[in-house]
Amino acid sequence: MYVPFFSEDFKKHLEKLTKRDNILENRITNQIEDMKTDPFRNSIELTHELKGKRRVKVGDYRLVYAVCEECRKKGYENFNGCYDCESKPVNSIIFFDVFHRSKGYDLL
Amino acid sequence: MLDKREKGFNYNFIRLTFGPYSGDLEKDIKWLEGSNLVKLVSVNEKTRIFKPTESGERILTVFHDLFHRNKIFTEKIAAINSKFAGLTLDELLKFVYSLPHPYMKGRSRTIGELRPGTILLYKVDPKKARVTFSLTPEELATLDIYLDEECYHSLMEACESVKRKRLLAYNDVF
User: Fold this and answer.
1) Which residues of chain B lie closer than 8 angstroms to A42, CB-CB?
2) Chain A residue with minimum CA distance to B149
3) Collapsing DSSP states into helix, strand and coil, what is residue A4?
4) In whole angstroms, what is the distance from residue B41 CA to residue B56 CA?
5) Staple A35 to which of A39, A63, A107, B56, CB 3.0 to 4.6 Å?
6) Is the pLDDT at B46 greater than 80, yes or no?
7) Which of B31, B145, B157 to probe the A interface (max A CBs under 10 A)?
8) What is the DSSP string of B22-61?
9) What local confidence, expressed as pLDDT, does residue A104 receive?
């Protein structure tokens, strides 16, 4: 099982997004629960300055995170630069942010 | 690009009374403006000139490798831009209207002779394209974040926060 950790911004943005939306909160919670078993499923690796991070969709919302196991294996520590990297077990998932995809181009 | 079935930034264009027009291009310009990626720097009754904003420039810089990889398209666009961008609208229309219609069979007619509404250019069918703009799903997902300024800044702040502050456990959040 993987263990999730969250940035303060993730918590702040999640609270804002789910303030009046219990359904969304449940969907995001379920997604995170699923990711505890397999954090790679249905996700996509990001590139360029976001290298080392992954993105998963929950409807029109996006979660951006990193899997410590992958980060260490592929040497992405410098890209992610988490504050207390050494103290986190290899089976950790670091959730950076959650946001609504509002103005994306229709290619996706 | 159409002749060589190169699928880059293709648009459908039709002949209208005051010149060739593309509804898709108009939609994309509005989207680029609305997303603060380009800004209108000069406008008169006939011409609109757009330039990349700071956010637009940043994306062009960060994704330089992507555009370089697709230089078959970007070099052609740059060449067309340097050849025609300096022309006035009247000069440009005069040139375009003197061109023969690229695909009309039978008697050769110039674009200026065609009726309004006639299709001038069309999008290349991706299945029939010989070359397409190369973009991986991973790059597309990354670009999707960069293209939404609000999401991009939100994520950048979160990344900084992760570098400086203690992370929260599941029970601190849910």
Assistant:
1) none
2) A103
3) strand
4) 14
5) A39
6) no
7) B145
8) -HHHHHHHHHHHHTTSEEEEEE-SS-EEEEE-HHHHHHHH
9) 60
Assigned token pair, A14: 């999640």
Taking CA atoms, B12 is separated from B118, B120, B146, in Å, by 11, 8, 27
* CA distances to B1, B10, B74, B91 from B126, in Å: 13, 11, 18, 33
Sheet hosting strand A54-58, strand order edge to edge: A43-45, A54-58, A61-67, A92-100, A3-6, B168-169
**pTM (2 d.p.):** 0.86
* pLDDT band at residue B3 under the 50/70/90 scheme: low
d(CA B18, CA A55): 45
Confidence at A108, pLDDT banded by 50, 70, 90 = very low
How close A87 gets to chain B, by Cα (Å)? 11
